[in-house]
Design brief:
Elements (H helix, E strand, L loop, with lengths): L36 H16 L2 H4 L7 E6 L5 H12 L3 E6 L11 H10 L4 E6 L4 H9 L3 E6 L5 H15 L15 E5 L6 H9 L6 E5 L16 E3 L3 H7 L2 E4 L14 H8 L3 H7 L4 E3 L12 H4 L6 H21 L6
Parallel strand pairs: 1-2, 1-3, 3-4, 5-6, 5-8, 6-7, 8-9
Helix pairs in contact: 1-12, 3-12, 4-5, 6-7, 6-12
The chain binds phosphoric acid mono(formamide)ester (CP).
Phosphoric acid mono(formamide)ester binds next to helix 3.
Length: about 350
Amino acid sequence: MNATAAPIRRQIHPPPVPPSPFPYNPGSMLSVQDLNLEAVGYLLSRATELEGMDPLVRDRILLKRRIALLFYESSTRTRTSFELAAKALGADTTLVSSLSSSIEKGESLKDTGLTLRALGAEAIILRHNSSGAPWLLEQCTHLPVLNAGDGMHEHPTQALLDLRTILQRLRHGADQVDAGTLAGVTITIVGDILHSRVARSNMLLLPRLGAEVLVCGPTQLLPEVTATMGPGIRIERDFDAALRRSQVVMMLRIQAERLAGLQLDLEEYKADYQLTGQRLASLAPEAVVMHPGPIIRGLEVTAGVADGPQSAILDQVSNGVAIRMAVVERALLAQEGRV
Ligand code: CP
């Protein structure tokens, strides 16, 4: 062997990334990233149409179609608004909750999903404590799956209803959106960013419309690494500085159920991050105050702010029904090529 021969260098190419097979079903909404801005605009305008429609006409759209709500975590707003939305379109709904079903006996998500499909469910609305569960359910059932919140990951319909609320307050309820719709708008998301699927879905959506998103919280709830979450997003630890720049301030609940040993001094937290009437009046007297709920009054917001004139919290709740009507309709009609 010739010792002086140049070593053979192999070119190492990374393997090609296969295209994602998800969502399998065109009616599914697993992530807000499944939606391009045209689809977002379609859902916003369809929500407005459905909201204004004669209820006796509207309830023929999905008359007697079967929709299952599968909830492994508690919920008031999401569950009720999905159910009211499906019923407003004429669908029959059934609720399976982890506390009163065979899930308690150890039945898997896959078997529960296949059982619901065998019972005639044509779409499943899933809330689950594990991130990624909606993708698994869709893969197993190939039904349209609507992500109603998966662990610490995403809550896409919440981001859509939050966007509708912001557009109502700042853009006269516009429902056609593009990359400049929220140009010049700073939205600050405050508190438990780490555990918040609401924050994540909003961070994936709002910068695509041109908004600047500031995320604000202590390092335990907002580690430095989340700074790399995407373009248009910046960490601002100083709540007062963030408030001064904000047209919208989105407060988050501290998710005690997901803290898993994390220690937080609540008095210190309140001093640094609670939205009080005084802070709001002096730093952001025009800002829209939002909160996905449930609110812990006296912790992340004071009662006066939650009930005050700048609060859009109950508008967010109401917008949940309109947005979810559009999303549920799309779930069933997209696979038939009708939307
Ligand atoms: N915003 C939200 O998801 O609230 P619920 O947990 O009550 O559904």
